[in-house]
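>> received
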Amino acid sequence: MTRPTPGGGGHGGPPGSAVGWQGPCLPWLDKAMTSLWDPIPVGVGEDGEGVEVCMVERNIVIGGEPGSGKSVSVSMLVAAAALDPYVHLTLFDGKLVELAMWRRCADHFVGADLSRAIEVLKELRADMRTATST
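>> returned
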C-alpha cells in the first residue's frame, strides 16, 4: 500500500477524504453485487498499480503504521462481502469505529458487549457444525 500523502487526510487521501488512494477510489460504487470468489481491490501499491486480494480459502491479517490504509482495506473487504448476496456478514467492532458504518449490512453486529460476542460466536460455531455435518 502507498504511504499517506504528506499534508493529506488520515487515510492517505486529500484533507477530509476517507479514501486510501487516488484514482478510481470507490471501485464498488457502480456494482449492484459482487462475489467473494473474485479478486477484491484493496488499494494501490508503491508502483501505482491496484492491489487486489483473493479471499477464496484464505485468511487475512492487515497491519501497518498509522495512516497506512488498514481501515480502508478492511472496509473494501467488508464492502465486497456486503455486496455478495450469498454472504452472511457478522461483524465484531469493540471500539464501534471501524465497522459501525456497515452495521445495517450485517446479520450480526457486535460492539463492546462481551456477552453478546460470546453468544454470537456460539451461534456461528453451531452454524459451521451444521454446515459441515451435511
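>> Confidence is low (pLDDT under 50) at residues 1-24.
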